[in-house]
Design a protein that fits this description.
- There is one protein chain.
- The chain has 324 residues and is an alpha/beta fold.
- It has 2 domains: 125 residues, NAD(P)-binding Rossmann-like Domain (Rossmann fold, 3-Layer(aba) Sandwich); 182 residues, Rossmann fold (3-Layer(aba) Sandwich).
- The protein has 11 helices and 12 strands.
- A 7-stranded parallel beta sheet has the order 8-7-6-9-10-11-12, with helices on both faces. It has a 5-stranded parallel beta sheet with strand order 2-1-3-4-5.
- Helix 6 links the parallel strand 6 and strand 7.
- The chain binds (2R)-2,3-dihydroxypropanoic acid (DGY).
- The site of (2R)-2,3-dihydroxypropanoic acid has 7 residues, from loops.
């Protein structure tokens, strides 16, 4: 008998067809009514879940009696209760590596956009304001040759550091759990405590996973350590920053600007951030290129197949549950 897969987001019709060759596939869709209700109805039958963007923990998975694997189409897995999945013997997989370069590109887009006021001046020109040459009040700041502080030098952090060092001649500082001597040699990067990084950097880029240790890592105290001329870029997770404190600092001009891809609550339809010309606000698109989203979905499908067919998935987040 075929196993059942509940595909709850981010798979193309072609991928759903490919899944249907191996499994009974249930794919909730807005055309069929309420998504949560469809999810809840399918859950007790599912051996595998594949998708992203749902909080999945004890409460949500109480009825998932047959569940063997949750294959997330994301690198981050902070929306899953890993402890609970592990306790239940349910495998959790993610999609590392395939989104590293695209996400680093997006971080640099935010660095450049916030430094050179790209979004603000685009809106200004389109509003018909460009009647004479741009005044110094609208000038941006340079990126090349400045100091780039990376909070969390994992794969994505290193890819951002490489762009900064090799492409823009930036001095690279980083903070995190452990020094990375190989990257230090490659990028002439220096490991410093977070407070020193905040005080010395012109651009602070947050690339840490969300955990109890990194929640609200950047609050009022940390923002006050930054230079008023500095820019803060967040491509990690929204709750890494105290968003209210950030908004206050931006409104008061205590910080030059911010480039944000992630927020405390997502999706975000309304926010004081949207009224701030010194905040570039993107709708969580770090990995949202056609190529990368395709690669992520393929990687998640590989993980799902392995788990449901008795092979150890390549990207097993909780290896304790593997009894192969
Ligand atoms: C991830 O994969 O964790 C990114 O935030 C994109 O969803």
């Amino acid at each position: 008998m075929k196993k059942t897969v509940l595909a709850f987001s981010r798979l193309s019709p072609a991928m759903l067809d490919a899944l249907a060759e191996r499994y009974e596939v249930i794919a909730p869709s807005p055309d069929k009514g309420d998504l949560d209700a469809q999810f809840a109805e399918a859950l007790p039958h599912a051996h595998g879940l594949i998708g992203v963007g749902r909080r999945l923990g004890r409460e949500q998975l109480a009825d998932a009696a047959r569940l063997e694997v949750v294959s997330s189409v994301s690198v981050g897995y902070d929306s899953y209760d890993v402890g609970y999945l592990t306790e239940r013997g349910i495998m959790l997989t993610n999609t590392p590596d395939v989104l590293t370069e695209s996400t680093a590109d997006l971080a640099f887009a935010l660095i450049l956009a916030s430094a050179r006021r790209v979004a603000e001046l685009d809106a200004w020109a389109k509003a018909g304001n460009w009647r004479r040459t741009v005044e110094p009040a609208l000038f941006g700041c340079d990126v090349h040759g400045k100091t780039l502080g990376i909070v969390g030098l994992g794969n994505i952090g290193a890819a951002i550091a490489r762009r900064g060092r090799l492409g823009f001649g930036m001095r690279v500082l980083y903070s995190g759990n452990t020094p990375k001597p190989v990257l230090e040699r490659e990028l002439d990067a220096r490991f410093v405590p977070l407070d020193a990084l905040l005080a010395e950097s012109d651009f602070v880029c947050l690339v840490v996973p969300l955990s109890d240790k990194t929640r609200q890592l950047i609050g009022r105290r940390e923002l006050a350590l930054m230079k008023p001329s500095a820019l803060l870029v967040n491509i990690a997770r929204g709750p890494v920053i105290d968003e209210a404190a950030l908004i206050e600092a931006l409104q008061a001009g205590r910080l030059r600007g911010a480039g944000l891809d992630v927020y405390e609550k997502e999706p975000l339809a309304e926010s004081p951030l949207f009224a701030l010309p010194n905040a570039v606000t993107l709708p969580h698109i770090g990995s949202a290129t056609r190529e990368t989203r395709q690669a992520m979905a393929e990687r998640a499908m590989e993980n799902l197949h392995a788990a449901l067919e008795g092979r150890r998935p390549r990207d097993l987040v909780n290896p304790q549950v593997w009894r192969g």
